[in-house]
Amino acid sequence: MPLIKFFGNLRQLAQASRLPVKGSSVRSLLDELCRQNQALSDAIFIDGQLRQHVRVVVNGHDVALEQGLDTPLEENDQVAIFPPLGGG
C-alpha cells in the first residue's frame, strides 16, 4: 500500500507524519485520503482541483511533471504532499 508523507501544517491536519492509504493512482489515493479527513481535503483541494501551490511528489518526482493526478502508483511508492510555503 502506498505511504503518504505529510509536511508542514498537513501533518497537524492528518494527525500523523506518515499514513498508508490505498490507491492505484495519485487521484484515487487522494480521494480515499480526503474521504477520511475533510480538513485535509479542504487544505489540498479547491473546487475539486488540487490547490495551486500544493505539491504532490511520488518517489521524488513531482506529479505535475508526470501524469498529474493520473500518475499511477505501485504498492511500495512513497507519496509526499507539501502545502504552500510562506515566509520572508
What does this structure look like?
- With 88 residues, this protein is α+β, with helices and mostly antiparallel strands.
- The protein has one domain: Roll (Ubiquitin-like (UB roll)).
- Helix content is 27%, strand content 25%.
- The protein is built from three helices and seven strands; from the N terminus they run E-H-E-H-H-E-E-E-E-E.
- The strands form two sheets. Strands 2-1-7-5-6 form a five-stranded mixed β-sheet. It has a two-stranded antiparallel sheet with strand order 3-4.
- Strand 3 and strand 4 form a beta hairpin.
How would you characterize the largest beta sheet? 5 strands, mixed
Overall number of domains: 1
User: Counting H and I runs of at least 4 residues, what is the number of helices?
Assistant: 3
CATH architecture: Roll
- The CATH first-level class comes to Alpha Beta
Question: How far do the termini sit from each other?
Answer: 38 Å
CATH superfamily: Beta-grasp domain
Summarize the structure.
The chain is of the alpha+beta class.
